[in-house]
Each structure stands twice: as C-alpha cells, then as structure tokens.
Amino acid sequence: MPAHDAPPAAAHEPARPWDVSVRARTALDAFEHLVGGIGTAILALIMLLWLVFTAAACLFGAGLFLVPGTLRALRAVAGRERVRLSRWGPEVIGPGPSPTGLRQAVADPATRREVGWVASHALLGTVLGLVGLTLPLTSATDAAFPLWWSFVPPSEATPSLGLWTVTDWPGAFAVSLLGIGWFAVTLAVAPGMARLQAWPGRRLLTPPPGTDLVTRVAELTATRAAALDAHATELRRIERALHDGTQNRLVAVTVLLGASRRAVSRGSADADALLERAQDAAEQALAELRAVVRGILPPVLADRSLTDALSGLAGSCPVPCRVDADVEGRFAASVEATAYFVVAEALTNVTRHSGARSASVTVRHRDGRLWLRVTDDGRGGADEHRGSGLAGIRKRVEALDGVLTLASPPGGPTTLEAGLPCGS
Amino acid sequence: MRIVIAEDDPLLREGLALLLRAEGLDVVATAGTPDAFLAAVDEHRPDLAIVDVRMPPTHTDEGIRAAVEARRRQPGLAVLVLSAYVEQAFATDLLADGSARLGYLLKERVGRVEEFLTALERVADGGTAIDPEVVAQLFARTRPDTRLDRLSPREREVLALMAEGLGNAAIAERLVVTDGAVHKHIRSIFAKLDLAPADGTDRRVAAVLRHLNDAHRRA
Fold it and tell me: Per the CB 3.0–4.6 Å rule, which of A19, B15, B72, B144 could disulfide with A255?
C-alpha cells in the first residue's frame, strides 16, 4: 500500500508499537472481528453438518431433492462472511447466482471453494473466536485474583488454567502478575488471531485466481441494460403523457383564443363562450400536467422516505387504511416513484369500487425486490380489463421488470401484490 | 372550400372545426383515426384536408401515411399537415413528390388565425406552406460545406421565406424591400444552387426541396 493512502495508525499496524493505548485500540478492533467471526463460524458449522447430511442423503438418492436448497444456503452463509469481511478490509466480491444442480455445483469452482471455506471456518473460526473471547476474560479473572481468592474453597484457589493451587498472599499476587501477562499476550496476539480467522474467507471466498470476472461483468451488463430499458420505457411514457395530454390541451387553448380574438374583432357575441372553452382547456392542461409531474416523481418522495409518503397516502384515503412497512433506507427513485404510484392507484380503486370498510398496505424488502401488498375487505370482483386503473398499474410495474398479481374473487377480499426489482 | 379534419384529440378537433366554421369555411367531416379520415375523403371528395401527424394506433406517423394515401386516391387534394413538433423526416416524406398543394405547420400556428387562414388558402390554391420553424431547423442543421453556404445572409432570408411558401410580393413586404430587389436575390439563389432556368421544373420549389433533402440526408 503506498504511503500516502495508508490508513490511520490505529487501524492495523500501529506506528508506535509500544504505545499501550494504540495497542489496546487495535486489540479491541481485533476482538470485535473475532466475536463477529464466531457468528459466521457457527453458521458455517451448522452448514457443514447440513452439507454432510445432504451428501449422505445423496448416497441414498433422497438427498438430490435437498441439493438446490443446500446450495442456496451455502451461498447465503458465504455471502454473510463476504459482507463481514468487506466491512473491514478489501471488498470480497462474490460470484453470480448459485448453481442449481449437483453436477453444476461440482463443476463450479466457486462452490468448491465455498465448501472448503465452510469446513475450515467452521473449525478454525470457532476455535479462534472462542480463544479470542476467553483470553480477555482469563486475564481479567487472574489480574483480580487477590480480590477473590480468599473467598473460594482452598482447593479452587487456582489461576484460570488451574496450573497450581495458591495458598498465600505472595502467590495470589503472582497470579495477578500472570493476569497482567495474559493481558499483554492478548494485546499482542489478538490482531494476528483476527487475521488468521479471516484468512480462509479472504483466501477462498474471493474469485479463484484466473477468473476474469466474466460472468460478473455479464451479469452487471444485463442488469444495467434492463435498467436503461426501463428508463427508456419510462421516458416514452412521460413523453406520451406530455404530448397527448398537456401539449394538445395548450394547442386547443391557442386555437380557441385565436378564434375568440377573431370573434371580438368581428363584434360577434361568441367571444365569451369561446373564451370560456379556452379557460376550460387551460385548466385541463394544468390538471394533466400535475398528473404527469406526480407520475414522474411524487413531490412528497423528494424530501421524505417511501414509508412516510405511503403513510401520507393512507392517511388521506377515505377508507381507513393501515400501513405496515418494514423497509430501511432509500431505493432508486424510479422504484420509489412506481411503488408510490401503485399504492396510490390501488387505494383510489379501493375507495371508488370496493365498498371496503378497511384496507391495509404491506411493504417488505425481500429477495432483491420491494414487495407491496394492498388488501381490502370489500366486495372483490376487480377486473383488470375494465377500467384503466389496474392496466396502468401493470404497465408501470412491468416497465421496471416487476411482477403484479391480483386476486379478487367475487365477494372479496381483494389483494394486489407487486414486486419491484430494486437491485439489492 | 370543403374541408375534412383528421385529428385524434377530440378537444382540438372540435376547436379547429369551430374556428373554421366561424370563419365561414365548410368543414364537411371530422375524423379521429386514419381509417375514418380516408373514408371521409372518399365520401366527401373535399378540396382540402387538415391532418395531424400523430394518430392512433401507434401515434407515430400514421397521419403522414394517411395523407399520402389520400392524395393517391384523390390526386390534387390539398393537404395541410399539423404537427406538435418539427420532424425533418416528416416534411421530406410529405414533399417527396413535389410540394404543390402541401403544407406542414406546427399546431400552435392555428392560434394565429389570420396567418393560418392565409396558409390554408395558399395551399388550397396550389401553393406551399412550410412552418418557419421547419425552415429554421433546416438552416441550423446545414453544415458549412454545403451549397447553402454560398448564399449571403440576405439570400438565406429570402430562401427561408420561399420555403414557407411566400410569393415574391409577400417576401418583399416581409423584408421591406422592393419587388426588384427580391427578384435579384432569387436569381442569385438559383445561380448559386445550380438551378438552370431551362429545367422546366418549378425552381422555387426545387431550391427548397434540394435543401430539405440535403438537411435530411445529413440529419
């Protein structure tokens, strides 16, 4: 690493190795990593047992059904470690989607390396993590030995490792010194242990040497093309709305104004009627412009979160409506705008057609999609082919490559569910 | 003058009909789709058709294609195309077979009723009406290495007005010069654009078309 972008000294390599505070901070970081490592190590341990079980089951044929789920779980567990490692070191880039069959999995180098990581991290990671947890506790109990040794039965008055039995005060203070020694050892070895614990992941969860990230690039290219495509569709929709709505209304305004001027110059009495029609047309133009603007990016989304915006929608809905949103952070503007549009249109339909007494909106972020569900207890029987509301919703959702399902049996209830890809 | 209007926006269609009827013109039919328009042309044999470029089903150039088809069915039908925006390709498609009895105007020109009516009459009488905006784009897009570059600024102004479909007298009036001066500019334009007098074609139209095509090829 070049000198000019070296991290602050405390991060990894203390510039003043004997400065205790710097040492302590480094050790504290390492301690945090070790404890975090225990989490993924336990996951890896469970995964290892499950892999063994699946492999054994495969010998009898029944395990083949478990393979796809197991592979997905393997990738998910490895993914957790990748995220953890990426937080405090160079980013660990994962492979694309997991293989689905046994044969592809065996042929897939990334999967083989993940299996290797599961085995090594399950054992090494757990042991290092537990030792890392025990060391500070040991040094603390030993350092405090003189405070508590006289209160325990003489046979149990031993240092943490039970090396010898203490019978007098000098011995007790010796144990205390031992505790301080343990503390020094902890400071000295913790960073190395954290690095060692992370080593299998950094080694095996990165793309194997020689892969040139071709699939990764292909995947990014595909998603990017899809995003651009959705963007173009969206622009076309806006252009059409502006052209067929607002622009035509404004042209009508100029035509009617021209006609009324002629009427005035002729001294005809039609002028007032023409002006009134011109005003109507101008008002329509404004209304359509508002609708277009709201459709591009609802102003409320510009300065508040999606959850807030949806709560606002629910609050202004004449049918009592509850919002249950369990999402954090922001999504792409197009996703938020579409989500807002879908809920707004769905609630309009609920109000106008369902006769419902209550409605609810559920928002979840799952499997890389933002899921929206709008339910009401009305009379049901909603039909996508009658009325433009539902067709408009489908168009917006599909422009983003999303999915839309509608269940509305006669007698209700009606449930509309939309899933919008949100790239994470 | 018997007129058929093809425009898919109802408000605009009715507004146009209202305006023209108030001016004492005979709007015999209005249509909202290309098919209805062609049926109306067949039925009423109008003198002039006013056609919107964007019409159902795809809202791209159905209007232009309907206008071309209407002129095939009824040669000599005067057509005034209205467009929400300037599209060079539409203008050249329309003018490919000569510019007599053709007009291409932006929709908002309709609001300037007097000028709109003048353009309407000019087209019905066998002339041409091209929107100043179309002409301006034509000049803006032309690259330095074309023949248009040989023209002086004044000659360009004259060509632009010719392209709009104005006659010599109208050009002289617009530029506040004498008829003789306009004549001199036009002769100079023809010479610079290599349009020989013995050609037999309408050199005014040829001059305009040459550069419509020029600009279109480059666009």
Answer: B15
Helix (H) or strand (E) holding B179: helix B179-192
The residue-averaged pLDDT of A166-190 equals 86
CB-closest option in A251, A256, A263 to B108: A251
pLDDT tens readout for residues A98-141: 777 778 888 888 888 899 999 999 999 999 999 888 888 888 88
Torsion of CA A30, A32, A38, A44, to 10 degrees: -80
B214 CB neighbour count, 10 Å cutoff? 18
Distance separating alpha carbons of residues A139 and A146, to the nearest angstrom: 13
A321 CB neighbour count, 10 Å cutoff: 24
Query: Which A residues 220-249 touch B at CB under 8 Å?
Result: 240, 243-244, 247-249
Cα separation values, A252 from A257, B11, B14, Å = 8, 7, 9
Q: How far apart are CA A295 and CA A299, in angstroms?
A: 10
Query: Which tokens go with A334?
Result: 């197009």
Interchain CB contact of B117 with A (< 8 Å): no
When the pLDDT of each residue in chain A is averaged and rounded to a whole number, the result is 83
> Does residue A59 sit in helix, strand or coil?
helix
- Could you say which of A240, A258, A268 has the minimum Cβ distance to residue B19? A258
ipTM reported for the complex, 2 dp: 0.72
pLDDT > 50? residue A8 = no
B18 and A274 within 8 Å at the Cβ level: the answer is yes
Binning pLDDT at 50, 70 and 90, where does residue A419 land? very high
The whole-number average pLDDT for the span B145-167 is: 80
Note the pTM of the prediction, 2 decimals.
0.52
Nearest CB neighbour to B113, from listed A244, A259, A277: A259
Q: Among candidates A380, A366, A365, A364, which has minimal Cα distance to A414?
A: A380
Average pLDDT over residues A248-275: 90
Strand B102-106's sheet: what is its strand order?
Answer: B26-31, B2-6, B48-52, B78-83, B102-106, B128-130
Q: Select the CATH number that applies to the domain covering B2-130 from these four: 2.40.40.10, 1.10.340.30, 3.40.50.2300, 3.10.20.30.
A: 3.40.50.2300
